[in-house]
Amino acid sequence: MCQGLGYQPNAPQSSKEPVYSIECLKDNYIRVCKLLPDGRQLLVCGEAPTLTLWDLTQGKPIQKGEIKSTAPACYAVAISPDNKTCFSCCSDGNIAVWDLHNQKLINQFQGHTDGASCTDISTDGTKLWTGGLDNTVRSWDLREPTQKLETYEFTSQIFSLGYCPKDDWVAVGMESCYIELFNVNTSITEKYQLQKHESSVLSLKFSSGGDWFVTTGKDNQLNMWTTPHGYSIYQSLEAGSVLGCDISEDDRFIITGSGDKKATLYEVIY
After folding, report:
1. Could you give the CA distance from residue 263 to residue 245 in angstroms, rounded to a whole number?
2. Span 222-249, average pLDDT
3. Residue 130: strand pairing partners
4. Three-state DSSP class for 260?
5. pLDDT > 60? residue 267
6. Cα–Cα distance measured from residue 229 to residue 62, given in angstroms and rounded to the nearest whole number
7. What residues form DSSP beta bridges with 63?
8. Which residue in 10, 53, 215, 236 has the most C-beta neighbors within 10 A?
9. Whole-angstrom Cα distance, residue 180 to residue 216?
10. Triad 255, 92, 116: Cα angle to 5°
């Protein structure tokens, strides 16, 4: 059981200079830096019709390739557990499916009527979940790529999404400031709506164990919740809009990136 979360502002500071600086996407805004499951490759994309793939095993980042998309921007990506396939959420509403080894487009899922904004993949790699600016969440069976499983409608644009690795829960963060959890098991009708944010919920991430998740928002907040009932575990107020977050694989650390150009590291204390 998580008893709290702490941040050590007086911890020793590392060098302010980056180990490496990667020039990519030219002058375009970067939305995604995604480390592949093998920890050996990095995918970068954003407000450009280009995804770049980097090799991190050569002492310094080496560009492996560049993938050209027909959409003007990519908002989010998910990577298959075997590192072979990338699913990119495009600004035109499509989900582009890429062969990362050959760096080629192999499929495209069509369904969202506005930009596809967020995505997550099940731990076994069989289901893909996407959220969109068309107020819907869609699920796709990756064993049958032409079959769209379900469409879930909401009252607000979907800005963030996560699939619980422990149970069949999906959580969505919305432009309206609400978070909704629903169970995708058709025999369970439970659904929860959570509210602590005062503005758009910009990012959402489940812990590896699935017992809790975190959300961040335009209101400068980081919130930590239990799964699925949404009991509040912890809340922190940062100096700027908290644009993104991630959780370490061992669930011991949370990191956020905010609009004041700072990354904040939190330690989870059990």
Report:
1. 9
2. 95
3. 119, 138
4. coil
5. yes
6. 44
7. 54
8. 215
9. 14
10. 35
Q: How many CB atoms lie within 10 A of CB 209?
A: 14
**Which tokens is 161 given?**
């999404």
Q: Are the CB atoms for 208 and 250 separated by under 8 Å?
A: yes
How confident is the model over 141-166, as a mean pLDDT? 88
Rounded CA-CA distance 177/53 in Å is 34
Bridge partners of 238, per DSSP, are: none
Residues 242, 10: Cα–Cα separation, whole Å: 21
How far is it, in rounded angstroms, from Cα 248 to Cα 39? 13
pLDDT band at residue 228 using 50, 70 and 90 as cut-offs: very high
Pairing of strands 136-141, 148-153: antiparallel
Beta strand 191-194 with 62-68 is unpaired
**DSSP codes joined into one string, 45-71:** EESSSEEEEEE-SSSS-EEEEEEE-SS
User: How many CB atoms neighbour CB 74 within 10 A?
Assistant: 26
Q: Which long-range contacts (CB under 8 A, 24 or more apart) does 188-194 make?
A: 190/228, 192/228, 192/229, 192/230, 194/225, 194/230
pTM for this model (two decimals): 0.88
What is the rounded average pLDDT of the residues 246-252? 94
Give the C-alpha separation, 221 to 223, whole Å: 6
- Rounded CA-CA distance 156/102 in Å is 38
The structure tokens 């990012």 sit at 203
C-alpha separations of 257 from 4, 60, 203, 231 in Å: 21, 23, 10, 24
Could you tell me the two tokens for 181?
């959890």
What lies within 8 Å, CB to CB, of 39 at 6+ separation is 56
Hey, how many other C-beta atoms are within 10 angstroms of the C-beta on 123?
13
Whole-number Å distance between alpha carbons of 75 and 89: 6
Instruction: Indicate the length of the chain as a whole number.
Output: 270
